[in-house]
Write a structure and sequence with these properties.
Elements lengths: L1 H21 L7 H26 L4 H21 L9 H40 L9 H56 L3 E5 L5 E4 L1 H7 L3 H4 L4 H4 L10 E10 L2 E11 L7 E7 L1 H46 L5 H28 L7 E4 H12 L9 E5 L5 E4 L1 H19 L4 E9 L2 E8 L6 H4 L17 H11 L3 E7 L3 E9 L1
Parallel strand pairs: 7-9
Antiparallel strand pairs: 1-2, 1-5, 3-4, 4-5, 6-8, 9-10, 10-12, 11-12
Helix pairs in contact: 1-2, 2-3, 3-4, 4-5, 9-10, 10-14, 11-12, 12-14
Catalytic activity: ATP + protein L-histidine = ADP + protein N-phospho-L-histidine
Keywords: ATP-binding, Kinase, Membrane, Nucleotide-binding, Phosphoprotein, Transferase, Transmembrane, Transmembrane helix, Two-component regulatory system
Protein name: histidine kinase
């Protein structure tokens, strides 16, 4: 309404100026001066109302003052343009319509009554102040103009009030619908953001259209950056499961490593060819399943191995005892002496192998006590630097902060020796082995990394099994024993390997 009044006042000003410019040059008449005054009043009233609206202080009183001002401005313009014969009497109708907009239908009826009164008073004053001989309009004509104008204003007030009420109701319903839609949109975003499962949608061209927060975290990708990318780039191989798959598994390479996803694919309703994919990260679950299977398998092997080792110890002891008796006899036969030495030496080696086997099968209960892991790791690596196996290997230690955990220091040192020596053998000359200590997820983590990355997928499933080795002369009991000792501590040991990223053994010990 403020904008409308501004435009109307500006058009009135333009019309008045053009009329003066088309007339002969002379001093503006009294009517012209009053016209400029009325237009200036309209501008002033509009500016004041606009400023109060901008400050947020305008209310119903301002609307009432504005409507009264419109009626007065209309009265002034009608007076200046001929009174009863004025072509500007329609301005009263505009005032009534404006009242219906800002003051509802009651305000429109009041504005119609005030306009009728103002027009009647104007005609009455003009008739009383006009000389009798100059009266050109008959009384019947005046009454007709007054009656028709009053009737028109009342009808306009009723109609505009009805339309204003309908517009207000429609506007309220629309505002409520918009508020509900915004509320539903926020609720939808909250639901999608709070879902523990990943969710991704794509269009008919298999381009990603949405990725929720959980999916972004699982795939370690920026959700906004993924929009518009091909679905196969985000989830390679998922197209083979489309257009519908109740349940499937998909290995995916992410910036944080390889993940195993359990996912379901279904068509997206309302858009032909579009897909909805819901997925969960099953990596830890599958890893725990593999650990459990490996533990069960090793437990069975351990039971069998312990029985077998006990059966071997007695005949082995008899063999070694016989060899010692033969060695004590003073025989001059060189062949006998050589064979006796071989028998004794091999019996000792077999005895050590049986002891290692028993240590794997039935590791002793750890004698736990608080141990400074940072000191233990540093001392063990320093001791291994003197090993001929590590002389041509770059051996690094990263212990950023002191860390204490309840462990058996002798058993943990044995685990470290096995892992570091295996890493040095795998890395070879000019290779690198790194031992790092960290505190994460309520556990102490020891990482032993080597630059070789020589463990294949086929080897992963047999890595901790006894007698499994890829080195010539190895017994295959080092990693098996390390696994048993860590499990006895209630910890975990995991391994990852890639030809370009190296191999890492991760030992987790509860704090």
């Amino acid at each position: 309404m403020v904008l409308f009044r501004t435009v109307a006042a500006s058009l009135s000003l333009v019309v008045t100026v053009v009329r003066l410019m088309t007339q002969p040059v002379q001093e503006p008449s009294r009517a012209d001066s009053l016209s400029f005054a009325v237009i200036a009043g309209a501008y002033l009233l509009t500016v004041v109302t606009g400023l109060r609206l901008r400050r947020g202080t305008a209310g119903r009183l301002d609307a009432t003052v504005q409507v009264v001002g419109d009626v007065l401005i209309a009265t002034g313009l009608v007076y200046l343009s001929g009174g009863a014969d004025s072509p500007l009497t329609f301005l009263y109708s505009l005032a009534v319509i404006g009242a219906a907009v800002v003051l509802d239908w009651r305000g429109a009826l009041v504005a119609a009554a005030v306009s009728t009164f103002a027009f009647t008073a104007l005609l009455l004053v003009m008739r009383l102040t006009t000389p009798l001989g100059s009266v050109m309009v008959s009384p019947s004509r005046v009454l007709f103009v007054l009656g028709s104008n009053a009737l028109a204003l009342v009808l306009i007030a009723v109609l505009s009030g009805y339309l204003s009420r309908q517009l207000s109701a429609a506007g309220g319903a629309l505002s409520q619908s918009e508020a509900d839609l915004r509320r539903l949109g926020r609720l939808q975003q909250l639901i999608l953001s709070s879902m523990p499962s990943g969710l991704v949608t794509c269009d008919v061209h298999r381009n990603v259209t949405f990725l929720n927060t959980a999916g972004s975290g699982i795939l370690q990708e920026d959700a906004l950056a993924c929009v518009g990318q091909p679905l196969e780039k985000l989830l390679p191989g998922v197209s083979a499961l489309a257009p519908r798959s109740i349940r499937g598994e998909l290995p995916v390479q992410t910036p944080g490593g390889k993940r195993v996803l359990g996912l379901s694919v279904s068509p997206l309703e309302g858009e032909a060819g579009a897909l909805l994919i819901v997925f969960q990260d099953l990596t830890d679950l599958r890893r725990m399943e593999e650990d459990l299977k490996r533990t069960d398998r090793l437990a069975s092997l351990g039971t069998l191995s312990a029985q077998l080792a006990h059966e071997l110890r007695n005949p082995l002891a008899s063999m070694r005892g016989s060899a010692q008796l033969l060695a004590q006899e003073q025989s001059n036969d060189a062949v006998v002496q050589r064979l006796t030495g071989i028998l004794t030496r091999e019996s000792d080696r077999l005895a050590r192998l049986v002891e290692d086997f028993l240590r794997f099968a039935r590791p002793p209960q750890p004698q736990r006590r608080p141990v400074a892991l940072d000191t233990l790791v540093s001392e063990t690596v320093d001791m291994l630097r003197a090993d001929p196996l590590t002389r041509e290997v770059a051996l690094e230690v990263r212990v950023p902060q002191p860390l204490t955990a309840p462990v058996d220091p002798d058993q943990l040192r044995q685990v470290l020796i096995n892992l570091v020596r295996n890493g040095c053998q795998a890395a070879g000359a000019r290779g690198t082995v790194r031992v790092a200590l960290a505190h994460a997820d309520q556990e102490a983590q020891i990482r032993v990394w080597d630059s070789a990355g020589s463990i294949t997928e086929e080897m992963m499933g047999h890595l901790f099994e006894p007698f499994f080795t890829t080195r010539s002369g190895g017994t295959g009991l080092g990693l098996s024993t390390a696994h048993s000792l860590i499990r006895a501590h209630g910890g975990t040991i995991r391994v990852t390997s890639h030809p370009t990223e190296g191999t890492e053994f991760l030992v987790g010990l509860p704090l």
